[in-house]
Amino acid sequence: MAQQSFRVFLPTVLSRPFGANRYSLCTKSFTGFIKNTQRSYIRACRLQNNVSFAGRRYFSGDNAKVIVVFGSTGQQGGSVLNAIKDDKNFIVKAATRNTDSTRAKQLTAEGVQVIQVDISDAASCRDALKGAYGVFLVTNFFDTLVPEREIQQGKNVVDAAKENGIQHLVFSGLRSPKEVAGLEGCHHFETKKLIYDYIVEQGVPYTVVDYAMYYENLSSTMIPRKNEKNEYVIDIPMGSAPLDMLCVSDAGEVTHQIFVQQDKYKGQWIKLGSESLTIEEYANILTKKFPNRKFVAGKTTPEQYAKYGFPGAEDLAVMFKFYATGKCDHDIELTRKLHPGILTFEQWVEKNRAVFEAACP
What we know:
UDP-galactose 4-epimerase, domain 1; 3 domains; globular; alpha/beta; Rossmann fold; three-stranded mixed sheet
């Protein structure tokens, strides 16, 4: 049964039988007829694995393309899913390890089809991509801190994409600090470059989206610390070099547009960023937005940062060294071309005032 907009479904429903649900307007009320026939149509769509419903969801167009989004309950994947899910030209499937998580249940309630996928299992990945047109793939080194495992997870999805004839794989990749700047030890960048190399080797049609550091880190994993002067110190070891940043919750629209304009962006490496400022300039914006707090740039070096002792500290220290070389730039102009409304840092801070006030009391 072809999918169709619910707006055109009502006028044609009287002449469309649904198995045993053949109602006569002479014996059933029109309201009851419509309600029961609508339920039958929804069941039929479900059986064809076309659309998931939670009591409310628009039908997609006849030629809607299925996009499977990995990391759909996380920051990157969640942003991509939110940007695509209401586009009638696509049917989005949220791939997640745990379909019983709070976020997965929220997505189901919103009418999104949530599918259980173990990215570490090749067969699970193959099953997840059956019938799909496109895939958004993001892998997470920090889940295990084991490079080989992340690489294998990426390869599992690439192999599944090739086997299923996926026409467009959008991969969240990163450049190699070793190749570009001779810096070793940034494992979560190197793993993604190796996954990219495998995508090219396997001949899967692709676009790479290369994210700058998230604004959101400053209110979560890199919250400014309060010093003895009651100043809030942004402890990011960049010295006077600019740091490219990006609103990750807003960046999913870029990937949406890449899927929409796939002929234009296939085979390209898109470097996503929406702001490029020094740490001192980011601190000044925060002070401006919160006059009763003073934010300052820290003087920590990458070598000191590497000794902080938390899992991944050494990895991040090399990442900041790489950023400071200026050889890991991002294309803010192209990012804004793809998503003109993407937030500047100041706009993002204003939008998230309550979060910062809680994080920096």
